[in-house]
Amino acid sequence: MNGRPIFGRVCSAIAFMMIGAGAVTLLPDDGPSPDPPRAAAAGAVDIGFSQDMVAHHQQAVTMAQAVRGRTSPPVARLAIAIELNQIKEIGQMQGWLALWNAPQVPSGPPMTWMSTSHHGHTRRADGVMPGMASQQEIDRLGEANDRDVEMWFLRLMIRHHEGGLTMATAAARHAEHPQVRALATLMIAEQRKEISVMAGLLAALGR
Predict the structure, then answer these.
(1) 64-121 pLDDT, tens per residue?
(2) Is the domain covering 44-111+122-205 a CATH 1.20.1260.10 domain?
(3) DSSP-assigned states of every residue in 131-159
(4) DSSP code of residue 92
């Protein structure tokens, strides 16, 4: 007897169960419903924040990976922690976008969800996300010698985190989904703590 059809049905059932489990985190908690569960509609802030913060986090991961094996143990531990935390959060936000059937990247300029007219926050006229490093700065980080790499990494990452705080604060206040607000609040706490650690490391370098 051929076991392939049975195996395929089992795999399909497991995949369906995993998708259903991910959707539960975005469902309103109104008790059991006879209707098939559906994710609540996402607002512009939920989608825009998730799209833009994925890109913002991806640059932080790139910078952390660029200094791997080139720093002292305290800076190396910090870089690894940033990389792992932000990869985890990237996966979470990309999962939400997929659940909402929203594009993984914005169709227009970034940061339109954080316009002054909607939430009292300002954004750069060129639409660049706050705190982002330029390509020249990323290149300089990759080329920095052993003496300068830690200083350059810490300065860039402090500025990057400060920009991320601006975005996360807006999302914590204005996102519609409580799960999005909760993640944004967690980011605020994490990045404030990491900024404090990086400022201390930078001061120890005398830079």
Answers:
(1) 999 999 999 999 999 999 999 999 999 999 999 999 999 999 999 999 998 743 444 4
(2) yes
(3) TPPPHHHHHHHHH--HHHHHHHHHHHHHH
(4) H
Q: Where are the domains of the chain?
A: 44-111+122-205
- Tokens at 11, concatenated: 């795999």
Token output for 206 = 């005398």
Nearest C-alpha neighbor of 62 from the set 123, 5, 118, 141: 141
Q: Which long-range contacts (CB under 8 A, 24 or more apart) does 152-156 make?
A: 153/63, 153/66, 153/67, 153/71, 153/75, 153/79, 154/75, 154/198, 154/201, 154/202, 154/205, 154/207, 155/202, 155/207, 156/63
